[in-house]
Design brief:
It is a single chain. The protein has 2 domains: 225 residues, Glucose Permease (Domain IIA) (Distorted Sandwich), CATH 2.70.70.10; 77 residues, Sandwich (Immunoglobulin-like), CATH 2.60.40.1590. 8% of the residues lie in helices and 35% in strands. It contains 2 helices and 23 strands. Strands 11, 14, 15, 16, 17, 18, 19, 20, 21 and 22 form a 10-stranded antiparallel beta sheet that branches. A 4-stranded mixed beta sheet has the order 1-9-12-13, with no helix packed on it. The protein has a 4-stranded antiparallel beta sheet with strand order 4-3-7-8, with no helix packed on it. The longest helix has 18 residues.
């Protein structure tokens, strides 16, 4: 299929959330990360509205920072990472701190409040700013560049590289659903939503942030972490949460989104079966689905994404194994 300039521009601008090509795909690649196989069979769309989440927690709740997260304060803020910023507020309740108009995760350590900010892969290096919505005080922090490895992939099925117009229409519609799920409203929590437990047993097959080239054409970087696991392996909730969306997506296959509160949302893709429903509350360790190869993947695996303030970050930063 010959692409017009308009379709080509649309394809290149497709949201990173569709992760054009998970590492388990039908292709060959020269990369530091070994790719797997991807399916030629595309599942039909089954998109439902994102389930509304009601903030049933009291606004007076102040979650305490776990010791695990103190390590993040010693790491530089990089693209695809997390920035930690000390706040001057001595409020007894959680300060309302915004980054790019989105409320961020705020935790307390003794009398000190800390903001934890997700930094998207599309973020530019340089000085960025937080704003305390109640006091108007601003906090500057620096984001450093980070170079992620490249992955050059040869795909036999050209539709996997250049979807046809009908595919593009579906992808764009689904991207809106994914964006809405990741933009679930901020919700107070009694405990910190981080760290997270590993959702399925298995090795890491494709790391976060890989710069991808399909048949020589640049595509969005890998926006999650791939975990190798056998077909039918149980996938567990990495911490307590609420199911805000489930669906069968063009690229991602059967997918579940969990809201863990304070802008922390996780995404689980390519499931064989979804075992939860939208609006359902789940507990840490509860089975939410089974590993599969739905969507554009033939090799069973889990693509797992973690979002803070609607910014996809490296899951390993908040993973407690």
């Amino acid at each position: 299929m010959k692409l017009t300039p308009l379709i080509r521009k649309s394809l290149l601008s497709l949201c990173v959330l569709s992760h054009l090509g998970c590492s388990a795909n039908s292709l060959t690649a020269a990369s530091t990360a070994k790719p797997q196989m991807r399916s030629n069979t595309l599942a039909s769309a089954e998109i439902r509205p994102v389930a509304p989440v009601v903030n049933v927690a009291s606004p007076e709740i102040a979650a305490t920072m776990p010791e695990f997260l103190s390590e993040l304060r010693n790491q530089p803020a990089v693209i695809g990472g997390i920035a930690s910023v000390a706040l001057n507020s001595r409020s007894a309740t959680s300060p309302k701190v915004l980054y790019e108009q989105r409320r961020v995760l705020v935790l307390r350590e003794g009398q000190q409040w800390w903001a934890f900010v997700g930094i998207a892969l599309s973020t530019k290096a340089g000085t960025h700013r937080l704003v305390d919505q109640d006091t108007g005080e601003t906090y500057n922090f620096t984001v450093q560049a980070k170079n992620y490895p490249a992955q050059r992939i040869t795909v036999k099925n050209q539709r996997h590289v250049n979807p046809n117009p009908e595919d593009l229409q579906r992808i764009q519609q689904e991207t809106q659903q994914i964006q809405a799920a990741l933009a679930t409203p901020w919700r107070a929590t009694e405990v910190s939503p981080l760290p997270l437990e590993k959702p399925v047993a298995g090795g890491f097959s494709s790391p976060f942030g890989l710069q991808r080239f399909f048949n020589g054409q640049p595509r969005k970087p890998h926006s999650g972490l791939d975990i190798s696991a056998p077909q039918g392996a149980e996938i567990h909730a990495p911490t307590d949460g609420i199911v805000v969306n489930t669906g069968d997506y063009f690229f991602n296959g059967n997918t579940v989104f969990l809201d863990h509160g304070q802008s922390v949302v996780t995404m689980f893709c390519h499931l064989d079966q979804i075992l939860v429903k939208e609006g359902q509350r789940v507990s840490k360790g509860q089975v939410i689905g089974l590993v599969g190869k739905t969507g554009r993947a033939t090799g069973p695996h889990l693509h797992w994404s973690v979002s803070l303030n609607k910014s996809l970050v490296d899951p390993k930063l908040v993973l407690r194994e």
